[in-house]
């Protein structure tokens, strides 16, 4: 009985995740906007501040991390918006499967469509800011661990601001302070790698952030969805 219920929950998660991916692929502008924003921020930063290698090399990790954070933030408003507008979200809440599992599936789909492409683009853009091979590898690893945390935490803010006017501004004000620890450890790990220091401890701590977000964020986002829909 327990195995049957677990199989049903996993099937529901898979169905929700695939549906979100297919729906997003039909609206490519929602996928391209964060990627183009990521590329433009990294390209414009040297032009607006300094193109000197002595400046860009130590700051490169921070530049790419800030650009990735803002790109993920840019896409969060669409995480639940389309399902809210067409009534699908209310139907998901009526399903026998726990809502937090469906929220987790939507967060994973969001990361696959937004966070993972940023990680793939990172090596090319890292070369533009003169990062070296070891630093590029560590940067990609920190983003691979950190961007799912951004999507999971962002799901809480997206759920709380669902249906509100000027939700994008409010979402940014709510979520950016929660992103700061991930940003600090992400950039700090890249800087430590550039100096030749050991980074295993910092990567383990980022892994702990990811485990904590996977454990708590879906429950918090599910509760926030119930609050938003009951108020709506």
Automatic annotation (TrEMBL):
InterPro entries: Cyt_c_biogenesis_CcmB, Cyt_c_CcmB_bac. It is found in: Cell inner membrane. Keywords: Cell inner membrane, Cell membrane, Cytochrome c-type biogenesis, Membrane, Transmembrane, Transmembrane helix, Transport. The chain crosses the membrane at residues 31-49, 99-124, 136-162, 169-194, 200-225. The keyword Ribonucleoprotein does not apply. GO terms for biological process: cytochrome c biosynthetic process; cytochrome complex assembly. The keyword Repeat does not apply. It is a multi-pass membrane protein. One of its GO terms (cellular component) is plasma membrane. Its main location: membrane. GO terms for molecular function: heme transmembrane transporter activity. Required for the export of heme to the periplasm for the biogenesis of c-type cytochromes. NCBIfam families: ccmB (TIGR01190). Belongs to the CcmB/CycW/HelB family. PANTHER family: CYTOCHROME C BIOGENESIS B-RELATED (PTHR30070:SF1), HEME EXPORTER PROTEIN B (PTHR30070). This is Heme exporter protein B. The gene is ccmB.
């Amino acid at each position: 009985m327990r195995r049957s219920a677990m199989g049903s929950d996993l099937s529901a998660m898979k169905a929700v995740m695939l549906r979100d991916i297919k729906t997003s692929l039909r609206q490519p502008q929602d996928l391209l906007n964060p990627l183009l924003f990521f590329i433009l921020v990294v390209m414009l930063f040297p032009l607006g501040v300094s193109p000197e290698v002595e400046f860009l090399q130590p700051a490169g990790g921070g530049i790419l991390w800030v650009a990735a954070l803002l790109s993920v933030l840019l896409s969060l408003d669409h995480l639940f918006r389309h399902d809210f507008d067409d009534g699908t979200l209310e139907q998901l809440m009526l399903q026998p499967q726990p809502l937090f599992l469906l929220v987790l599936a939507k967060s994973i789909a969001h990361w696959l469509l937004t966070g993972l492409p940023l990680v793939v683009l990172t090596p090319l853009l890292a070369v533009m800011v003169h990062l070296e091979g070891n630093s590029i590898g560590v940067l990609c690893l920190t983003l691979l661990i950190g961007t799912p945390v951004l999507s999971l935490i962002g799901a809480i803010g997206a759920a709380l601001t669902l249906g509100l006017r000027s939700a994008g501004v409010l979402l940014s004000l709510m979520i950016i302070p929660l992103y700061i620890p991930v940003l600090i450890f992400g950039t700090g790990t890249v800087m430590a790698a550039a100096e030749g220091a050991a980074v295993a401890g910092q990567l383990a701590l980022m892994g702990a952030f990811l485990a904590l977000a996977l454990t708590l964020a879906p429950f918090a986002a599910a509760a926030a969805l119930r609050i938003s829909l009951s108020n709506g």
